[in-house]
Amino acid sequence: MTISEAAVFLNLKVSKLRSMIFRKEIPFLKFGRLVRFRAQDLENWMLAQRSTPPRFNRGGHDTNNKSFFEIDTRFSKANSKGLP
User: Fold this and answer.
1) Torsions phi, psi for 32 (to 5 deg)
2) pLDDT tens digits in sequence order for the chain, 84 residues long
3) Handedness of CA 26, 16, 35, 8 (dihedral sign)
4) In angstroms, rounded to a whole number, what is the distance separating the alpha carbons of residues 6 and 20?
5) 3-state helix, strand, coil in the chain (%, to 5)
6) What angle do CA 27, 45, 51 make, to 5 degrees?
7) pTM of this prediction exceeds 0.70
8) Which of 34, 38, 68, 78 matches a 20 to 30 Å C-alpha distance to 55?
């Protein structure tokens, strides 16, 4: 597929797609000066770009990277006496 067709397929502007090609952020084929895309390559690329949303506990804190004690400043090491 052409750049225009790939832009519609990916719901991107042609200019954004061209910059992604220039930075080699997206899979493409080059035949001389012609740039082409395979639909399967673009679908696989889109699946690889997916990320999992952060999990939040009841207090609204991101629980993926930190424990409760690291998030809640009342329990930080600097305040080891537990005083507010």
Assistant:
1) 65, -115
2) 999 999 999 999 999 999 999 999 999 999 999 999 999 999 999 988 887 766 666 665 555 555 555 555 565 555 555 555
3) positive
4) 12
5) 45, 10, 45
6) 140
7) no
8) 78
**Cβ-contact 2, 31 below 8 angstroms:** no
Can you name the residues that pair with 36 across neighbouring β-strands?
A: 29
Amino acid, res. 69? F
Q: At 36, which amino acid appears?
A: R
Specify the amino acid at residue 37.
Answer: F
Residue 41 in 3-state DSSP?
A: helix
One-letter amino acid at 6 equals A
With CA atoms as reference, report the closest residue to 1 among 32, 22, 28.
28
The strand pairing partners of 34, in sequence order, are 31
Could you tell me if 42 and 6 are in contact, meaning their C-beta atoms sit under 8 angstroms apart?
yes
Q: Describe the crossing of helices 3-10 and 39-49 by its angle, rounded to 10 degrees.
A: 40
